[in-house]
Amino acid sequence: MKAIVYERYGPPDVLELKEVAKPTPKDNEVLIRIRATTVTSGDWRARSLEMPPGFGLMGRLFFGVSRPRQPILGTELAGEVESVGKDVKTFKVGDQVFAFPGAGMGCYAEYKCMPADGAVALKPANLTYDEAAALSFGGTTALAFFRRAKLQSGETVLVNGASGGVGTAAVQLAKHSGADVTGVCSAANVDLVRSLGASHVIDYTKEDFTKNGKTYDIIVDTVGTAPFSRSKGSLQKRGRLLLVLGGLPDLLQVPWVSLTSRKKVIAGPAVVRAEDLRFLAQLALAGEFRPVIGRRYPFEQIVEAHRYIDTGHKKGNVVITLAHDD
Ligand SMILES: NC(=O)c1ccc[n+]([C@@H]2O[C@H](COP(=O)([O-])OP(=O)(O)OC[C@H]3O[C@@H](n4cnc5c(N)ncnc54)[C@H](OP(=O)(O)O)[C@@H]3O)[C@@H](O)[C@H]2O)c1
User: Fold this and answer.
1) How many A from CA of 21 to the centre of ligand 1?
2) CA distance 39 to 275
3) Lesser CB count within 10 Å: N end or C end of the chain?
């Protein structure tokens, strides 16, 4: 099968189209013929080894010390089940599915095996493969952080970086939970962020939300520009700061903040549950959540897609489409 392979860390050109062995499903696995995948900030980190401050060594240990341990990137996919292992009862050949191997990666390929009881779910019928491929990365991240923050209906939530992959999901999921949402983005994305459910939008090129005197129950920082030292004054008395992106110094501060104030900082990797995928699919089916697709590229132009990600100004999700011979 065709796959996009990288054997060293670096710029987008390290990605190469190659022929690799097609995987065979184990007894408990499904083999998925991939129709669409995405380029996420996770792929960018694993390719470039650009890590948040203090995580350089940890990044290398995680992804591979001298070269990538997993040579095929791609955290999420949508496609159809081509075959199933003998113990699989929950999926059948032909099922249209989406899946989220996450840090396990391997979706930049024509086929991928997934454990049937893992992060794989039926594709909502009202979403295209392109949209379903982009359901998981931002959606599961936002869900995991809101779960830890115990987001309640009626709370005020500010999303910094509201136009990115995680931000566009966070705005929609906070709105769905009954929150009053403020999105922070640049002028070009104001209409998009409003259309996702934000009642207020702040253009970060014109206004610094940490200096306007307003306070929030929850602040979600997906950009890394709102650490506790800057945003504590914008949190209500029992406010929670969700550091989707935070450096090691921010993480080390977490216990100290809890000891010395009623405010809370929540940081670290999102813990994803397989049921989160089914929940996101239900929301999508009910018209309550729809992944934003900023750009699409064919599989063969994935290097271009990575060049776009490297700008740091990606809008929503970037989808990679795969054409099969049929
Ligand atoms: N903790 C976890 O488990 C976890 C999980 C997933 C992701 N992450 C991390 O979360 C971060 C965000 O991920 P993502 O996928 O959402 O990234 P992304 O899609 O690449 O985010 C790009 C967006 O950020 C916006 N942006 C850039 N500078 C900004 C600023 N100063 N203020 C407000 N918005 C700004 C851009 O808007 P403009 O073009 O308008 O500037 C763009 O739309 C990444 O660093 C990723 O590593 C962590």
Assistant:
1) 34
2) 23
3) C
